[in-house]
Amino acid sequence: MPSSLLISAENLKFINGSDFLPSFPNKTLLKYSKYTRTVSLMPKCSLSASSRPISQPRFIQHKKEAFWFYRFLSIIYDHVINPGHWTEDMRDDALEPADLYSRNLTVVDVSGGTGFTTLGIVKHVNAKNVTILDQSPHQLAKAKKKEELKECKIVEGDAEDLPFPTDYADRYISAGSIEYWPDPQRGIKEAYRVLRIGGKACIIGPVYPTFWLSRFFADMWMLFPKEEEYIEWFKKAGFKDVKLKRIGPKWYRGVRRHGLIMGCSVTGVKPASGDSPLQLGPKAEDVKKPVNPFVFLARFILGAIAATYFVLVPIYMWLKNQIVPKGMPI
Ligand SMILES: C[S@@+](CC[C@H](N)C(=O)[O-])C[C@H]1O[C@@H](n2cnc3c(N)ncnc32)[C@H](O)[C@@H]1O
Asked: Is there an atom of ligand 1 within 6 Å of 187 CB?
């Protein structure tokens, strides 16, 4: 199976209701065609923290918890997290559908963190046209130290409530953050608002595992959307030409049953100027809002333990890739 695959939203077929393949014929589809059936596009995961099922507490999918998670993770992020889940090859593959064709594009890298994805963006776009936004000053402090990003604007802010005017940017990019947003639909609606007419949003994020143990830890940790949920959120926000490209580390040989922290790159084009046609109520969470310290601590510890499982998965897959002969499934 190829490590990346471009899929148009109009061509979706779903496998066992939890995964999907494109409807155009290729080797992958033929191999799995007996499992293929069409299912409803309705999202199965909740859109707000309060409506999460008890079996999917997603302890770190909260702003405060994510803030503290990155307070510690920022220390090792570039050295430990990226090599296992988000390599330079994957980043370039994921940014390709964003169509960064001109150095003069205005780009916002939302939840840009330490600037790893921004380094991929500034290969194509002048750094002075790029803004990195993140809610974590600790992550941003790392980005500020990177020579290639010296000319970028760096701002603290919330992906669900962006400090940019309507119709501002040519490209909205956000990699590896949607999983922490309490209300992903709101973040995608914001992506729509800040883009100019014809502008493109590109959200790179996790995909939900199908293997039971990986699913268990994913549900404890944070939001791992299903591919069809991304498409649904983009369409509801008003985006047109919505496409999803599958990505993954090379050494996984296309395996997706353990889920992926960076598993797809979803793009959509803004067809008209102004705000998104989607109406939502007020924002549910704010990183500055006080929370019950005991509830916070319990969620933080349990979520961080669950996250550890996903540090081990890429190591396990790397070992399997070394042991199993090339060309065989792993
Ligand atoms: C996995 S890191 C990704 C960083 C970077 N985009 C990259 O590709 O390496 C996730 C980032 O999302 C940020 N984040 C989480 N929730 C956020 C929110 N609501 N608003 C802004 N940033 C957020 C975290 O602080 C963290 O830096």
From this structure: no
